[in-house]
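Entry:
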Amino acid sequence: MAIIVVGGHSRNVGKTSVVAGLVAAMPEREWLAVKITQFGHGICSESVEPCDCALQDEHVWSLDWETDRSGKSDTSRFLVAGAKRALWARTQQGKLAEAMPALREAIAEAENVIFESNSVMRFLRPDLYLTVLDPETADFKESSREFLDRADAVLIHTSSTKAKWEKVSMKPVAGRPMFGITAAEYVPEGLVDWIKVRLNM
């Protein structure tokens, strides 16, 4: 089993599009595609609605297999792209550890797994970790800073040459392969071949 993790420094930088693009480019790998979402205070991991379950430490995590192929949700997009199965793992903020035993069991039988997440890096060592960066987005999540030095390659939006984020050094990824991406092409030429070489596919 090969495990790829696709992370990114903020919301809406293209992580889902990268995962879907890689699944579509290598459908023969029969991917299990997993999206991990950690909700802030007051949002239930089961219903994805506001509730007070966090006060009772209930509904700490939830795993749901995607069946919809409309493409309306991120995990649905993974199925449309050609994933064999897709899973949405939801937890309260900082509670991913509680979901990991069930998540490990869920992925145990998969041929290959691709995650959309930064935080899962605390609990497993993937074969490849790709980080998606958009210089136009100033926010830079702590989880992305934490694992930046573990990125095997960087996928960076080419729309801007000057980064809006502050106090973030790119030294941890100096010398790592960098692939330019755009809103029209999230899987640039050469990326899939590079992945196949790295994973001996």
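Strands lie at 2-8, 31-39, 61-65, 85-92, 112-116, 128-133, 153-157, 178-181.
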